[in-house]
Amino acid sequence: MLLNEYQEKAMKTAIYPNKGDNIMYPLLGLVNECGEVAGALKKASRDDGNIITPDRKKKMVGEIGDVLWYVAAMGSELGIRLDEAVRGERFCDINESKFIESSLLFEKTIQCVVLSLQAEAARVTEMFVYAAYYGRDKTYFQEMSKEDGVAATRLGNVIMLLSDVAILLDTTLEEIAKSNLNKLDSRAARGVLKGDGGER
Q: What are phi and psi of 140, to 5 degrees?
C-alpha cells in the first residue's frame, strides 16, 4: 500500500469542524492518541508484568492506527503528502527506520520507543503552539513546511516511530494502516464515524 493511498482514503472519513482549515483538531487528536498508546503500555506494566497480552496488543495496534490517521489529517491540512514526510512511497520503505537502530543504547525496549513517540508528538505540538501564540495562521505553517521542511520532517519522525512500535509488536505499520481503514470503512457503513469509543 502506498502512504499517499492511505492518506487519501483516511481523509475520506474525516469529519470535523472547518476541515481543510483547522490544524488544531488533528493536532489535539495526535497528542490524545499518542497518550492512548502510552496508556495501554502503562497498563501492561501495571496489570500484566510488562507482558503485552494479545488483547493489549490489539488495543495498542488500534491506537497506533488512530495516531497515523491524525498524522495523515495534519499532513492534509498543511498540504504535506505522507511520502514527502518520510521520503518514501510505500509503507515497506520505512520498515527499517533509523530510530530502531539508534535505540540500541536503550535495548530496543518498546517503552523507550513509545516515550520517543510522545516526545516527537510534543515537538510537533510545540512548533504549532509557538506559531499560534505569535499570531501565525495556516499559511505560515504551509510556507514553513515548504521552506525548511520542518513540519514534514516532524510528521515523518512520528511515522517512523509508529513503524518502530509496530515492529516491536510483531506487525507492520502497513498492516496497521489497512486495519485502520477497515475499521473506518465499517464505521462509515454503519453511520458511526462521529462519536467516542473504539467499539462503536
A: -60, -45
Angle at 49 between CA 45 and CA 51, to 5 degrees: 85
- Measured CA to CA, the distance from residue 85 to residue 88 in angstroms comes to 8
Residue with cell 498543511: 78
Mean pLDDT by 10 residues, the chain (200 residues): 91 93 91 94 90 92 96 92 78 54 54 90 85 71 66 88 89 92 89 70
Cα separations (Å) of 125 from 30, 104, 153? 9, 27, 13
Q: Is 16 exposed, middle or buried (0-12, 13-18, 19+ CB in 10 A)?
A: middle
- List, as one string, the DSSP characters of 8-19: HHHHTT---TTT
Contact predicate 113/165, CB 8 Å: yes
